[in-house]
Amino acid sequence: MSQLIIGASLPKIPWEEKPGNESRVIWRYSNNPIIKRNPIPSGARAFNSAVLPYNDAYVGVFRVDHNNTRPNLHLGTSSDAIKWELSDPIINWVDEKGNPKPVSYAYDPRLLQIEDTFYIMWCDDFPGPSIGLGKTKDFKTFTRLENATMPFNRNGVLFPRKINGLYAMLSRPSDSGHTPFGDIVLSYSPDLTYWGKHRLVMTSSKYNWWQDTKIGAGPAPIETREGWLLFYHGVVTTCNGFVYSMGASLLDLDDPSKVIYRTRDYILTPEMDYETTGFVPNVVFPCAALVDAPTGRIAIYYGAADTYTAIAFTQVDELMEFLRKNSD
Ligand code: BMA
């Protein structure tokens, strides 16, 4: 039993015990990738996607790059969070009056629940990348809200509850292209429309090379008794382009701009064929995590090589011990 995670139990969480010969704190699902190429007739690749428990099963919002290479969001359903059924039409957004409010493209969704409402955030065309925000209560009607940021920004992630009475969001100001810089910032809002009280959370480290080009928040932060557990991606620039790895950090519960721990080394980096080979080689890009509070089990969903969806596992007590011993 674990006492660390503040949250619900999820006995049906996808899970595999850590292999006996594995010394690292994160281990991959043995049947990765769980979504392979051409998952639906209109889509070539589903990756960088987000999932949640819903009605005794699971629901997901998937980034699917279409056969014309433009990305959009598709709903997914699953009974075990491993085999996914993706709907072929894209998610169709309406405004608060019910009129169509389509997106021109949408990618890298995050999905989370605050009280009785599910929120979806994605990289939206303003024009130019900015943070799109929408909500649903039933995964049938999807209502688009005001974009949470001006361009250029990516990797917008809401916290799963208000902090000191305000909605809180992490994001990563960027440029309009393949941004060669990027730090994680925190913003607050009373109503999900007006954002302010901006704070710097973490900069791309100039001494740990795996994260020295840019960083961006991954799944919605996980509430633990010691702080918000945040998985994030970090990028190094090589002669062959960017390499995306994953790190973990712990942010203060009351003031998440305060970083308590931040892993010195990556905890997951492209090593498997499905991570090193694909549309964009050498990318692991976490966007979601399922959590079972009583056991401390965490299943992290990540995009691999901008081509596949994969899962990695960790256990929160072991991860926290790792964070204590391996942070700057
Ligand atoms: C980033 C985003 C991600 C993508 C990554 C690697 O800028 O566009 O969607 O996984 O690049 O291509």
What does this molecule look like?
The structure is a single chain. The chain is mostly beta strands. 4% of the residues lie in helices and 46% in strands. It has 2 helices and 22 strands. The strands form 5 sheets. The chain has a 5-stranded mixed sheet, with no helix packed on it. Strands 15, 16, 17, 18 and 19 form a 5-stranded antiparallel sheet that branches. The structure holds beta-D-mannopyranose (BMA). The site of beta-D-mannopyranose (BMA) has 10 residues, from strand 7. Beta-D-mannopyranose binds next to strand 7.
Radius of gyration, CA atoms, in whole angstroms: 18 Å
Low-confidence residue ranges: none
Instruction: Kindly name the structural category.
Output: mainly beta
List SSEs in N-to-C order: EEEEEEEEEEEEEEEEEEEHEEEH
Strand content: over 45%
The overall pLDDT average reads: 97
Number of helices: 2
Query: What general form does the structure show?
Result: globular
Helix content: under 10%
| Bound chemical compounds | beta-D-mannopyranose
Largest sheet: 5 strands, mixed
Strand order of the largest sheet: 6-10-9-8-7
Instruction: Measure the end-to-end span.
Output: 29 Å
The total of beta strands comes to 22
List the helices and strands and how they pair.
Blueprint: E1 27-28, E2 43-54, E3 57-66, E4 71-78, E5 85-86, E6 93-94, E7 106-114, E8 117-125, E9 129-136, E10 142-144, E11 153-158, E12 167-173, E13 184-189, E14 196-202, E15 214-217, E16 222-224, E17 227-238, E18 241-251, E19 259-262, H1 273-276, E20 284-292, E21 297-304, E22 308-315, H2 316-325
